[in-house]
Write a structure and sequence with these properties.
Elements lengths: L1 E5 L8 E5 L9 E10 L2 H7 L9 E2 L3 E8 L12 E5 L14 E5 L3 E3 L2 H6 L3 H7 L1 H14 L7 E5 L4 H13 L3 E6 L5 H7 L3 E4 L20 E4 L5 H8 L6 E4 L14 H4 L5 E4 L10 H9 L7 E6 L4 H10 L5 E5 L1
Parallel strand pairs: 9-10, 9-12, 10-11, 12-13, 13-14, 15-16
Antiparallel strand pairs: 1-2, 1-4, 3-5, 3-7, 3-16, 5-6, 6-8
Helix pairs in contact: 4-5
């Protein structure tokens, strides 16, 4: 099979498309014929050597495809069943989705009914965009922020794939007012089409709290922070005090820690701070989410689609350029 292998940390060109043996599933695992996979910013950090990964490694923390082999589990996972999988060590502890086949534990495989898949607009490209992006946005809003109908929501990093998905999901969940940030006015249309009520141009990422939108003058009920870095201090001040809640989910800035972090100074009285991490995420309702997409109630924003593993280097370059306008998907 073909796979994109990283032998040593580096830039996009460190991804080498090679011919490697098709893996064999061990007990409790299944073999998936990969049809598509989405790209994630964490994979840039892994490729650059910033994650505890031993090379050589096939990257990719998610993929979708069909069951090729499920020893001992064939009744639950018949051959050719459409499935999705994500995280759980993919692309880090063991080889991941940048390939034509991968083996994963049966516990992290999510089935999608064939009938529903056949109705999915965009087919494998749309399905390939969903697993990590949707479960991250859904988990952040539902499990960490406990977003309720009628509440106001600020999304810092509104043009990220998770930010666009979060706006769409928040709209479906009945949020009363959704504001999403961008640093470029040109991105306004894509944010609005995802479900946001207002686009906020956040030029420096550190001073939005000094000029909050007129519809949330006292701050937001919930804030989803996807940029990270020092901007978190400002996000905490964008939440209502008391009662507001901020969830740190993304690290688009690439800065994982803070210099001189002082909780007494950074966190306003009565404001809560939480996080969302995919590794500890409860299962998300794939079948239900796919049904919403099919029914037109939830929009999946696919930014760029690359056909073939041979385009993986260019796909990573586009991700680093931040110009995809949605989720980047590679079809295998």
């Amino acid at each position: 099979m073909k796979a994109a292998v990283v032998h040593a940390a580096g830039g996009p060109s460190a991804l080498k498309v090679e011919s490697v043996p098709v893996p064999a599933p061990k007990p409790g695992w299944v073999l998936i014929r990969i049809r598509a996979f989405g790209l994630n910013r964490s994979e840039i950090f892994t490729r650059q050597g910033h994650s505890p990964v031993q090379f050589p490694r096939i990257l990719g923390i998610e993929c979708v495809g069909t069951i090729a082999s499920a020893p001992g589990h064939s009744s639950d996972f018949p051959i050719d069943t459409p499935v999705a999988t994500y995280m759980g060590g993919m692309g880090r502890a063991f080889d991941g989705g940048y390939a034509e086949y991968t083996c994963v534990p049966v516990s992290q495989v999510y089935k999608l009914s064939t009938d529903l898949f056949q109705k999915l607009p965009g087919g494998w490209a749309t399905f390939g965009a969903m697993p990590e992006m949707i479960q991250t946005a859904y988990g952040s809003l539902v499990h960490s922020l406990a977003l309720k109908k009628g509440e106001s929501l600020l999304i810092r990093g509104g043009t990220t794939s998770v930010g666009l998905a979060a706006a769409a999901i928040a709209r479906y969940l009945g949020a009363g007012y959704i504001a999403s940030t961008t640093r470029r006015v040109a991105n306004a249309s894509i944010i609005e089409s995802s479900g946001a009520d207002e686009v906020v141009v956040d030029s420096d990422g550190k001073s939005l709290s000094t000029h909050l939108p007129s519809r949330a003058p006292a701050g937001f009920d919930k804030v989803l922070e996807l940029v990270g870095g020092d901007g978190l201090k400002d996000s905490l001040r964008c939440a209502k005090s008391p009662g507001g809640l901020v969830c740190q989910t993304g690290i688009v800035s690439g800065k994982w820690s803070f210099d001189g972090f002082n909780p007494m100074e950074w966190i306003p009285s009565g404001v809560g701070l939480t996080v969302y991490t995919s590794d500890s995420a409860p299962p998300f309702p794939l079948e239900e989410i796919a049904g919403l997409v099919v029914g037109g109630q939830l929009k999946i924003t696919v930014g760029k689609v690359f056909e073939g593993l041979g385009k993986i280097v260019r796909a990573h370059e586009v991700m680093e350029e931040n110009k995809a306008g949605g989720k980047i998907v590679v079809l295998t």
